[in-house]
Design brief:
It is built from ten helices and eight strands. The strands form two sheets. It has a six-stranded parallel beta sheet.
Length: about 240
């Protein structure tokens, strides 16, 4: 059972984030909350110490912001933070404008698994700009360990080293191909960024997000050992205007 695997991996809180894309993933917010309550009750009955919180992985749509404002798109644990999943195969036009407007509306978008997007090679600079304008980046633990192949692993390691990653998540789907395990990925993060920043990736920032802490209060990003000189200079420019 996934809950047992998560607890054995050291996970105490898990966000249930089904996809939200009308016509493809027709998940209603009220139904997600209802099903989540049933599952939480079952975990308690089974004495599995795992807390569940609601959310969704929201896909791009014309009325994205209005869906946020009226609650059709579930934010993480009813906070200002929302998972945002862009199309995998091609970069949609004006995506940076949409995410800017999401931030301007009082929400904080978290772009999920950018390292697995097929257009990352051509638009890596866009990810850097999105971070600068207030979008958080979440990479998948399995990408770091090579579970998704060498290409996502390269981009996950590069983003981590270059100080572009705010959160490391399981993105768990099942018990075999995509299990809820963080151990190996956490070890890689420790080797690249040190114990403190690895803890920020898997515990501190996620906990602060679920507590709806202001984005300005999240721990700052860190450059890793594998970052190039130009990447280190870019980070200084981003955060210190040099």
């Amino acid at each position: 059972m996934m809950a047992h695997m998560a607890v054995d991996s050291g996970i105490q809180v898990m966000a249930a984030t089904p996809h939200f894309m009308p016509g493809v993933y027709d998940n209603e917010s009220a139904d997600v909350r209802k099903r989540l309550a049933v599952l939480q009750s079952a975990l308690q009955d089974a004495r599995i110490p795992l807390k569940l919180v609601s959310g969704c992985d929201a896909h791009i749509r014309p009325d994205f912001i209005s869906c946020l404002l009226d609650g059709r798109i579930l934010t993480l644990n009813n906070t200002r933070y929302v998972l945002f999943e862009p199309p995998h195969t091609s970069l949609p036009p004006h995506m940076d404008e949409l995410l800017h407007n999401v931030v301007a509306s009082g929400f904080v978008p978290i772009l999920t698994h950018p390292e697995r997007l097929r257009w990352v090679e051509q638009s890596y600079e866009l990810l850097i700009r999105l971070v600068a304008q207030g979008t958080l980046m979440q990479i998948t633990a399995g990408s770091l360990t090579g579970r998704f192949g060498p290409r996502p692993q390269y981009w996950a390691q590069r983003m981590l080293a270059e100080g572009l990653v705010h959160i490391l998540a399981t993105d768990a789907h099942d018990t075999k191909k995509r299990p809820p395990s963080m151990v190996k990925a956490h070890e890689i993060a420790v080797a690249e960024l040190g114990l403190d920043e690895a803890k920020n990736l898997v515990l501190i920032r996620p906990a602060m997000i679920l507590d709806n802490e202001p984005v300005e209060g999240l721990p700052p990003l860190h450059i890793g050992k594998g970052a190039s000189v130009s990447a280190k200079r870019s980070l200084l420019n981003r955060f210190f205007g040099r």
